[in-house]
Amino acid sequence: MRLVPDGDALHRTAAALRIALVGRVISRFDAFSDVGPVPGAGRVVESVEAHGRQLDVIWDDGLTLHTNMRLSGVWHLYRTGEMWRRPSSSMRVSLSTTDWVAVCFGAPVVETFREFDPRRHPGSGRLGPDLATEPRRASEAIAALFHYPEPNTTVADALLDLHVVRGVGSVFRSEVLWQMGLHPAATLGQLDDDEITELIDTASSIIQTSVRRGHRMAPLAVYRRTGQSCGRCREAIEERVVSERQLFWCPGCQVRHDPAELTPPSLDRPMDPHPAAAKFLAELPWRRDPLAG
Question: Can you tell me the distance from the alpha carbon of 270 to that of 196, in angstroms, rounded to the nearest whole number?
Answer without folding.
Answer: 40
